From TrEMBL, chain A:
It comes from the Bacteria. Keywords: Membrane, Transmembrane, Transmembrane helix. It comes from Actinomadura parmotrematis. This is DUF4383 domain-containing protein. The chain crosses the membrane at residues 12-30, 36-58, 70-91, 103-123.
Length: 126, 371
């Protein structure tokens, strides 16, 4: 067994131990194990079955326009990150210091900046 | 040769960016960002649940502010990286046959844990900072333990891919695939997410934080609040309020507000650095915790439990270790930003100490119990 192979098996051992700690902790400390598992597997399934095909579909529609594709990707991911704020799902009437901004308008401003930057990039690449 | 339906799908991915070189660079970036999130996450966890051997320092004052800011803003900036990586390797989901050996089956299993766990961590983290809890488990518990699963799967994945990645990034591509433009776009997305949120902890950039769930300077007495008095079930300062110092003390104390104000009053500038990643500084006025403890004749090595008037809640008490209570910046605060402490900030008296998570800056203090 050479050094690289030894390092690889060492890493397998470390990784397995860490996953074991995680699995133990979840079983021992998360009462609703099924609920956790639904969220754990659900994220991957939702990505692979819904999110990724939707992105690929958009990519197929705007094919061969790389600046537009890039702008849609950046704007899309910013929208995704901002969505919980825009929808204000966590707002509490007793605490106005939580989610204090007008996130819908702010997202539009951010998207306008993305569009402006993309326009400049497109202009320079012509 | 018979082609399976999955193989037909895999053949339809025409973009040449679905390649190993892009996956390798994104993988390196993700390794760094998940590694950073794991380390900063462990720091935050063990600060709140310290094992006996761990003595977290009280200085530098802003250490926790930085590690937790890195955890949350870095985590948000990781979202574009992960999505780009999954897009790049998506065709491999349809490889046919799904595996050719037991080893490959285990490898794909580890990748599932990695992908499921990574999406889980980023999604629950994002929902948590937005104060939205649609899931049937405690965020902190699930996020903490799932981190070990993700990092374990990441170590296995790195072991499997390391030699391939090393070879790939060390050789010059001989084709004209626009990888640089693609990776720069991903970096731009990460940078944009960070720039639109980092101002919730880096106050000079506060006005740029258009998408952050918090804004420093917004809240009662120009400071955000995590748990209001209403949420804690506290409607007013009890008129008969006293600070009781009990436990392993030379003499028990029961101090009124006037008694406290008779001690030397100090003003310190310290941040509230929340586990949710935001932070904001305030000018706190109050008496040093160590002055009160000395008055009670407390031993130098004692640990102190600060108790709130709150009846319930996981954070109604917090421990103060010797390093923190010896620090002259650690106050029992009675005022904030030039005014008497607002009820939402813990009136009449709250703990404020350097380099400590916000949930451990106990509000509505009613007692100190010395161990």
């Amino acid at each position: 067994m050479n050094g690289t192979t030894a390092a690889r098996y060492g890493a397998y051992a470390v990784g397995t131990v860490l996953m074991g700690i995680g699995a133990y902790g979840i079983v021992a400390h998360v009462p609703d194990l099924f609920g956790w598992a639904v969220w754990f597997a659900g994220g991957a399934v939702l990505h692979d079955a819904v999110f990724a095909p939707a992105v690929l579909l958009v990519g197929a529609v705007v094919t061969r326009r790389p600046v537009l594709q890039g702008a849609l990707a950046v704007g899309g991911v910013l929208t995704l990150v901002a969505l919980p704020m825009v929808l204000r799902l966590g707002a509490r009437p007793d605490n106005p210091s939580i989610l204090p901004l007008h996130y819908g308008w702010n997202l539009l401003i951010v998207l306008a900046v993305v569009a402006a930057v993309a326009a400049v990039v497109w202009w320079r690449r012509r | 040769m018979v082609r399976g339906p999955a193989e037909v799908i895999a053949g339809r991915f025409t973009s040449r960016l679905h390649d190993e070189r892009v996956a390798a660079w994104l993988g390196i970036a993700l390794g760094v960002s998940f590694g950073t999130a794991f380390v900063t996450g462990l720091i935050s966890h063990f600060m709140q649940h310290p094992p006996g051997w761990l003595h977290w320092p009280s200085r530098p004052v802003n250490l926790y502010r930085v590690t937790q800011g890195l955890h949350v803003i870095g985590g948000l900036a990781t979202i574009p990286l992960l999505l780009a990586k999954l897009w790049t390797v998506y065709p491999r989901l349809f490889q046919w046959p799904p595996f050719r050996s037991a080893g490959q089956a285990i490898e794909r299993g580890a990748v599932f844990v990695l992908v499921g766990g990574a999406v889980f961590q980023l999604a629950t983290g994002l929902f948590n900072i937005a104060y939205w809890y649609p899931f049937p488990f405690f965020f902190t518990v699930a996020h903490y333990w799932t981190a070990y699963l993700v990092v374990g799967a990441l170590v296995v994945h790195v072991a499997n891919q390391a030699s391939k990645v090393r070879h790939t990034v060390m050789t010059r591509p001989e084709d004209a695939v626009p990888r640089r433009a693609f990776l720069l776009t991903v970096a731009a997305a990460s940078g944009a997410v960070a720039l639109a949120t980092v101002g919730e902890t880096l106050s000079p950039l506060a006005r740029l934080a258009l998408l952050a769930p918090r804004r420093p300077g917004t809240g009662p007495q120009r400071l955000p609040v995590n748990k209001t008095a209403y949420a804690a079930g506290i409607t007013a300062v009890p008129p008969e309020w006293r600070l009781r110092v009990t436990g392993a003390v030379g003499r028990e104390l029961s101090l009124s507000l006037a008694d406290l104000r008779a001690l030397p009053v100090r003003t310190v500038r310290l941040p509230i650095a929340c586990v949710e990643g935001w932070s904001a500084s305030g000018d706190w006025e109050g008496v040093r915790l160590r002055d009160v403890l000395r008055l009670a004749g407390v031993a130098d090595g004692a640990r102190v439990r600060v108790e709130s008037l709150e009846r319930y809640g996981a954070y109604r008490t917090s421990w103060v270790e010797p390093r923190h209570w010896h620090d002259g910046l650690t106050l029992l605060a009675l005022g904030l930003n030039g005014e008497p402490l607002a009820l939402d900030h813990g009136a009449p008296c709250r703990l404020i100490a350097p380099d400590r998570p916000g949930v451990m800056q106990t509000k509505w203090v009613g007692g100190l119990v010395v161990a």
